[in-house]
Amino acid sequence: MMRKKSISASRVPLFLFLCQMISALEVPPDSKLLEELPQPPTITQQSPKDYIVDPRENIVIQCEAKGKPPPSFSWTRNGTHFDIDKDTWVAMNPDSGTLVINITNGGKAETYEGIYQCTARNERGAAVSNNIIIRPSRSPLWTKEKPVPRRVTEGDSLVLPCRPPMGLPPPIIFWMDNSFQRLPQSERVSQGLNGDLYFSNVLPEDTREDYICYARFNHTQTIQQKQPISLKVDSAKSFTERRPTLLTPTGSTSNKIELRGNTLSLECIAEGLPTPVIRWNKEGGELPINRTVYENFKKTLKIRTISEADSGKYKCVARNLLGSTHHTITVTVKAAPYWITAPANLVLSPGEHGTLICRANGNPKPNISWLTNGVSIAIAPEDPSRRVDGDTVIFSDVQERSSAVYQCNASNEYGYLLANAFVNVLAEPPRILTPANKLYQVITNNPALLDCAFFGSPVPKIEWFRGDKGSILHGDPYISHENGTLKIPVAQKDSTGTYTCVARNKLGQVKNEVHLEVKDPTMIIKQPEYKTIQRSGQVFFECTIKHDPTLMPTVTWLKDNAELPNDERFVIDKYLSIMNVTEKDGGTYTCVANTTLDSVSASAVLTVVAAPPTPAIVYDHPNPPFDLEMTDQLERSAQLTWIPGNDNNSPITSFVIEYEDAMHEPGVWSYQTEVPGTQTTVQLKLSPYVNYSFRVIAVNDIGRSLPSEASDQFLTKAAKPDENPSGVHGIGSEPDNLVITWEPLKGFQSNGPGLQYKVSWRQKDVDDEWTSVVIANVSKYIVSGTPTFVPYEVKVQALNDLGYAPEPAEVIGHSGEDLPMVAPGNVEVRIINSTLARVHWEQVPLKSVRGHLQGYRIYYWKVHSLSERRKRHVEKKILTFSGDRTHGMLPGLEPYSSYKLNVRVVNGKGEGPASPDKIFTTPEGVPSSPSFLKITNPKLDSLTLEWGPPTHPNGILTGYTLKFQPINSTHELGPLVEISIPANETSLILSNLNYSTRYKFYFYAQTSVGSGSPKTEEAVTIMDEAGILLPAVDAGKVQPVFTRITTAAAETYANISWEYEGPEHVNFFVEYGVAGSEEWKKENVNGSRSFFVLKGLTPGTAYKVRVGAEGLPGFMSSEDVFETGPAMASRQVDIATQGWFIGLMCAVALLILILLIVCFIRRNKGGKYPVKEKEDAHADPEIQPMKEDDGTFGEYSDAEDHKPLKKGSRTPSDRTVKKEDSDDSLVDYGEGVNGQFNEDGSFIGQYSGKKEKEPAEGNESSEAPSPVNAMNSFV
Description:
disulfide bond, immunoglobulin domain
């Protein structure tokens, strides 16, 4: 505890010392001064810390320094003194510390490897260089190895190693062929950072004999070559596509450390088929746009100039159509030391105080150590004026012997910083560096700067005098700067004269005289005029200038801001003349008058026109008026007269008078008035306290003239303001204040100096006196401590030094609002119908609103459905009713549900408290349509109907109503039959129907309120069960029929398959929509396939679907209803990893292998497969058994190798399909909605024609994988 106390106590005088410290001297960069002043050594040039040299050339280690007297130099090598005189191969440059090691004449570079440090020393201290590490560059040969030819199969991945020799510095790697041509690279083939060549997948064109890796060593300008690698790629009839895996880096995570300021390079190279693409991201952040670079087809991510903020986890994702993989690289940014505050040279006078501060940062935090004259300060000779406090060296009461060079070393495990800073204690009398009797010349009304550069130690005090005697020049109109310069902001003619600068300190004083001359400005008193001239004519431009007689002006003419053409037709004498004018001579001509002190210019436009056949009148803008004169000048008016300029053949129609207020808006000309063209005098109304100038512009039908010269300035007398601020408002920003705002008057409206505002307020309807405050330069005043939301009378009055403006108008404002205090009472709900309710409430007292009443807000939410009796997610809805209302309507309610609501009052601050929750229930409504309606098991005279309850019963179901009627061949409807069905039934068998007849069914759900919307379907009873067509009117025609439609759905897609009997070569289409809606979407089926995949479906949604045939109007299957699987995270166990499943798959694989061997033997014997015999018996050429070569199903004949199997050809002779007899049912293969399908609609592993493999969306599903899918991947 005592130790901590002593430390804290020692900090107090340090703090007080720093507060009282005198700032150090600054030595001006004057060469003569620097030559005379003694100065410790300073290192000016040195070799880099890590110095790699060419072993074939001389080694030059630089060390240059300056100081007074000139420093001497010495060197250390590997921490010990390096005796240069004893080494014949080493020499030091004269007047320098630079070493030259002679390698070209016999020295060996390897002998001189090591760490070198230079010291520059004079009588005032010693400065040291960095530690310079000398290393010769190396370019070793490749290790001998026998290249092994590589042979791979098309589609495989491959890595060709480079493994270059380790050089110094590391070599640059590239791959070329024998012809020295760079090998092409792409997303598929690329070179890694380690030099290896990576193939994501190989192609036959990759076959070549000359894959050669080259290493270029830049320092020695040599290139080493690896032995060529031969690559042979065998073509494959087919190859299996595969998802990406990473070739480099390996594993799922890795770590990388990089230093601050370097470039971070991260690499991910993947293999796969198709070729993967790489994408990068940073977890929890964004990649820096301006510093991020992608290289090597985005396989390499580079971030330039990294900092600690770039630390984090970077993820590369490799993706192709079959999936993705990723790798996470955890990047840690460390930092070698870097400066926060580097120590700076310190020049002090005896007895002064100062500090050297050395602050650096890094990761890890660097260690700070001090040296003096190259020796650790701990063992250096003691100096009573010096004290070290961590990163600060404190000097107090220094003497000349305190001069020294201090070194600050900041180091951590990643590097170091070394900085020299000298302390130079000087006792110098004042000296003035500005030359004596220096002449300064300026133009009238411009600033004049008189220099007095000085130096002395202690810092001299500077004083200026006019001439040899007089008082010190300070204050208006003079400004003295710390560097000794005297500024006269606006020099006048009487400022001309001699000025004396005196510098003094305790060691003496010195003075210097300078001279100032103030010149008249250069002016153009006769400007060139705009001219219009005919071709071949002659034109003259005049430019008359007035200048100071002591200055010699030069006049230059420009055309379009460039030099005049080098043409003898242009003659410059007293004016510019152009002879024999051409069209090219048209343009802007500028007269520029220059002196050594100023420059002025004026321009005129020359327009060249064609010479008319007969003289024509030339119309042009009028010339500007001139000779403006002000007369009859009164306080609020004056008379302005002028002489019109030439109208240039177009009569002047009007004159525009403009004014400039030089006091408030100098340089801005504003509109004053306009008078007819026949008038040359106008009486002007003026405002008080305005410094007026006027100009006149003439206007004719061609346009406006240039403005006239400005009139003399006229300052009107000041007066009280004529008007008060506008836009006065009083609105509270907090419950206890009133904010009064207004639009301030412009300077023009102030009417006099000292513009202020008198702000007054009092509470309305209360017998209070006005409270007032006078303020200036603001447009807002806040009154605090007011009651909440009460009316105030507010007024703002302008005033100036001459008095007040007229009494202002009063405005009504309010203090700040607060939240309402009372909730609406007696909330009642009246049910209008099953979806609409009317809410009534009582108004709250206006005093309790405590603000501007904006309206009432109803919060209402559904608690639960009375039919479901289950809790659901509460989603509150809000309705706002503006104004002072007492009721509102709640639309869009759900029937037969329980709701809660409350009401709140709203003001400008927000909502008040809520009324107690009111519970109400909506009555029953009609239900939605049944969720699905299926018609199955068609017989001669009966059909089976199956249905699901409505998705939204909207009440208690009382039953169902079925209506149906026959449809004849001309699509006419027969008599309608109606059947009532109890609510607990889900199926019905309709008997006594006509055979081979189409029926249309309308199925309704009912509550006590009535029937909902119907679900419709159509179905056909079958013919006789023997398969013989009964006699009919259109006998001989094949009647089309869909005997079965099957659906199997996943999360976002569903496979629809059907069985069809009827005419061949029919194009099918599929229509689908959300169950319960009337909308249908149509998708055409490619060819006559009997399956189709619906994509892009919404997870967890019920859909309706039906199938139709093009060219058969009115022919449509019955509707089927299915529901997509819910979107959920995959948390099921992957059965592909279960032991029982692996054993089952092994058994299946063994059985298939045995069958293939038996089939192969049978074929060689010329026998037939049993399946083939069965096919011969059926004589159906479209049945496709399994092929031997690729494991897919196909013909034994090669004639129709790609013809798809028609499902209708598998229908039994009785023309019916039973579920247990159908060996291709998709539902039987899958697991309900979890069945897996390819995107083309074929079930994984099903018998299909040979085709290109497409990516399966099922792989992205979160459901458990299908056993069949797993079997295919295993085999």
